From TrEMBL, chains A, B:
It holds the Pfam family SAICAR_synt. This is Phosphoribosylaminoimidazole-succinocarboxamide synthase. Pathway: Purine metabolism; IMP biosynthesis via de novo pathway; 5-amino-1-(5-phospho-D-ribosyl)imidazole-4-carboxamide from 5-amino-1-(5-phospho-D-ribosyl)imidazole-4-carboxylate: step 1/2. The gene is purC. It comes from the Bacteria. It comes from Virgibacillus tibetensis. InterPro entries: SAICAR_synt/ADE2_N, SAICAR_synthetase.
Length: 226, 226
């Protein structure tokens, strides 16, 4: 298998059958040794983080499959920390779609003049460009269209699907008494030009809280799958 | 008259008849002594900058009046560098609406991965919050609505009016062989809840170029009104 991409938290291999294998690593994003799902740098390495991320990803992607929400997921082998996925093309050089239920993180840093920390946001969706150099700038629907990254129709599908998926994750966390504050998702298009969820859904993609306390990704995995 | 506001480039006085008087100052925004219409700090003081800004503002507001585009403008006294305006309430704690015809400035800093410097943008509109502390963050239509700053209808009016006004400015500059790259406008609501253009339209609000050379605000005024 050929390694086609080395990511911050995952490497990607191309299989002979045309599908891809994602190798989850033990590196997590953060700054100065502190985990931060919004960070662009690998902040620390945690033994078992890869498998934990994959366990949660498998759990959520299978929940989405049950609800017939299209994703790139085929299957996962936890022992090897690998996931098999169908090919998908990304939008531009990559987008992140964020769904927010409470005002924290970069939202609060930008709009703190109008929002209190922790304020309920009711599934607010925003898109950011994957661009480490420019610190993943937020981008509007109009700019996405003008720059040829998304059509108006694609933006609408992306937004609706983001809320739909985030709501599933929120519900599943709620079963364990955990509250989802925000989550970032990535989308691509399959060979039929259908918009599908790609990448992963793990503790590293979201901020989850229990009784007002932030839950680290590894702990989240243990609470969710035990 | 009571001074009700001290601004970076203008002071505001309340008149006894309920209207307001804007006193244009010789301070212009910039950083390290270099003029930058996008800057949040007063960078330098230029003798005559206030009157020059007012001359251009008067010129453009009267053009808009001819076209029945609503603004807060009543009249101007160049010798005193003052402009009389009707009262208007601002949105939230103030917005700036930017119309871009070429990719420069903060647009390029954010979206340089997808746009070349100077690329034509065809009247692209974006809104930023007036918030010096948070460096005037751009904000989406969805976020403006969610935070109670603008309704969907108000956003649409704001966007349409911005393009309409920017197009007038662009046309007027073109008469003198000058090209408008971008312009920032401010809006408010009058006592009938009509959305009107407020603040000023001067060299300090826009980037104007002639034969590929940036034109300083004072020079722009001289070229436009001679």
């Amino acid at each position: 298998m050929e390694r086609v991409y080395i990511g911050k938290t995952k490497d990607v291999y191309k299989q002979e059958d045309g599908n891809y294998l994602l190798q989850f690593k033990d590196d997590v994003t953060g700054e100065d040794g502190v985990f931060d799902p919004g960070a662009n740098t690998v902040g620390l390495t945690i033994d078992g983080a890869g498998k934990a991320g994959l366990k949660l990803t498998k759990f959520f992607f299978e929940k989405l499959k049950d609800r017939e929400i299209p994703t790139h997921y085929i299957d996962a082998t936890i022992e090897e920390a690998t996931m098999t996925v169908i090919p998908a093309s990304i939008f531009g050089e990559g987008l992140e779609v964020i769904c927010r239920y409470r005002a924290v993180g970069s939202f609060l840093r930008r709009y703190g003049k109008y929002a209190e920390e922790g304020q309920v946001l009711d599934g607010f969706v925003e898109v950011t460009l994957k661009d480490d150099e420019r610190k993943d700038p937020p981008i509007s629907e109009d700019a996405l269209r003008m720059l040829g990254i998304l059509t108006t129709e694609e933006y609408q599908v992306l937004k609706e699907r983001t809320v739909q998926i985030a709501d599933v994750v929120k519900e599943e966390l709620a079963v364990k008494g955990i509250e989802l504050y925000d989550i970032k998702l990535e989308f691509g298009k399959d060979s039929n030009n259908q918009i599908i969820l790609i990448d992963e859904i793990s503790g590293g993609n979201m901020r989850a809280y229990k009784d007002g306390e932030y839950i680290e990704p590894l702990k989240l995995q243990k609470i969710m799958i035990s």
